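Lay summary. Proteins are chains of building blocks that fold into shapes, and those shapes determine what they do. In this project we predict the shape from the chain. Here is one chain we studied, written as its sequence of building blocks.
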Amino acid sequence: MAECGLRHHLAMAAFTAAFVFIAGVTAFAADRNQEITMSKHPYVGLWVSQDDYIRYELLPNGRYFESRGFRERVYHGEYRVTGDHIDYKDDSGFIADGEFRNDVLYHAGVRLMRA
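And here is the predicted shape, written in a compact code that computers can read:
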């Protein structure tokens, strides 16, 4: 009886993991019109922290680069903007988000201003 319960538990865990993976990949699936749409988007461009240590370069093709200090383009991946909300997924699979308010990008406790 316990073996049946364990199998059910493992099956549910595998299903949940597959769902989360598929949802994450689907959310960032390529959109043919994204580059055209983002090229005119007001949030495209360079965003820098007050001390210039952290820099986010939001490209019109839905890609981004993050630089830190003297290390250029340390992190890179895809981003999506919905209203004033931004979702990031770097190429290693790390997912994060942020908010634009009054021409300031708030991300992971950091305030970034337009360069």
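What the prediction tells us: Helices lie at 2-27, 34-39.
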